[in-house]
Write a structure and sequence with these properties.
With about 325 residues, the protein is an alpha+beta fold. Helix content is about 45%, strand content about 15%. A five-stranded antiparallel β-sheet has the order 1-2-3-5-4, with helices on both faces.
Length: about 325
């Protein structure tokens, strides 16, 4: 994409486009390429120029998801969609433009000063809002834009296939063990975000201003979102991620209890979904590792993936060798 040409095209296409003065990259890489449209204070999203690592929802589908959620009173806050363009001619790829939401996100590793310096009470409140926001999705009816519901087993098979394509046989074998036991259900299918990291929420004055990054969303079992979230909280099988190391963050037991309270569902059988989501994370890391090892990418971030892949494989193995897993096997 040529910035000068893109600006001309957007000026001609967008409402108040004549006020557009420039475009500044915010994030680029293996997810969406995101730009700030200066002068009109909007956000432009395009497919990644470097090529997508995952076969998640494309930018047009993502925009449709945002638009659908924006029409639901009980849905989490999302940016309003200004324009969806399926034509590749203007910018060389489909794209969408959305409002710029006030606030910022809490980075996975480089934590925002307001979060680090704000005190234990603030971090505890942030954590509870985070859990409650994603737990609330379990009360939403499936979205038509997300298509038919996906069973936990079929979702696991998809990530197993992804691991197989990445030449990670250990992960494939771990998924075989997981799939030998039926996935516990908490109730009817609902909206599942698929990537419930703290960094996928925007914050303004200590309150959630938007829930972002719906590339892996589906209609399915909400325990998947809880299982994914719990990877960040220390357990007998893995340590905490960076935000959860901060004082004041609630415990995993409190997370589960709050999720049950807000979702209105029981988390019995959650351990199956925790393992499945560790597998999903591992599959992504395995693909990044394969891209690095085969020379398909020289992104230095993927070298870190390659160094850490063994850790994630070992975590999944430890969970499958645990007493909790044996209890699920015996109950099946």
């Amino acid at each position: 994409m040529e910035p000068g040409k893109a600006i001309d095209e957007l000026r001609a296409t967008l409402p108040d486009g004549e006020r557009l003065t420039g475009m500044r990259p915010l994030t680029t890489g293996f997810s969406n390429d995101t730009y700030l449209l200066e002068g009109i204070d909007l956000i432009l999203r395009l497919p990644p120029a470097a090529g997508a690592m995952l076969d998640g929802h494309g930018v047009v589908k993502q925009a449709e998801i945002y638009r659908a959620l924006g029409e639901i009173p009980d849905a989490p806050p999302v940016p309003a969609i200004v324009l969806i363009c399926t034509d590749e001619k203007p910018l060389g790829a489909p794209f969408f433009v959305m409002e710029r939401v006030a606030g910022d996100s809490i980075h996975d590793t480089q934590l925002q000063p307001w979060f680090v310096e704000g005190g234990d009470a603030l971090r505890a409140d942030v954590c509870r809002q985070w859990v409650s926001a994603f737990a609330g999705l379990a009360r939403l009816s499936p979205l038509a834009v997300l298509g038919d519901a996906v069973s936990p087993e079929d979702d696991a098979r998809m990530w197993q296939s992804f691991g197989r394509q990445a030449d990670c046989q250990a992960l494939v074998s771990h998924y075989d063990r997981l799939l030998s036991v039926p996935a516990p259900r908490s109730g009817p299918s609902a909206v599942v975000h698929g990537d419930t990291k703290l960094s996928n929420l925007m914050w303004h004055d200590g309150t959630i201003s938007a829930m972002l990054d719906w590339e892996m969303a589906l209609n399915g079992e909400p325990l998947a979102d809880l299982g994914y979230m719990l990877y960040g909280f220390e357990s007998a099988h893995h340590g905490p991620t960076t935000p959860q190391r901060q004082p004041g963050m609630v415990t995993r037991e409190e997370v589960i209890a709050l999720w049950e309270q807000v979702s209105g569902r029981c988390a019995k059988g959650l351990f199956w979904h925790e393992i499945a989501q560790i597998g999903k994370i591992t599959a992504i890391i395995a693909e990044g590792t394969n891209m690095w090892n085969t020379g398909r990418s020289t992104d230095p971030k993927l070298e870190l993936f390659a160094k850490n892949l063994g850790y994630y494989i070992d975590v999944m193995a430890a969970m499958l060798d645990s007493a909790e897993w044996q209890a699920l096997e015996n109950a099946a």
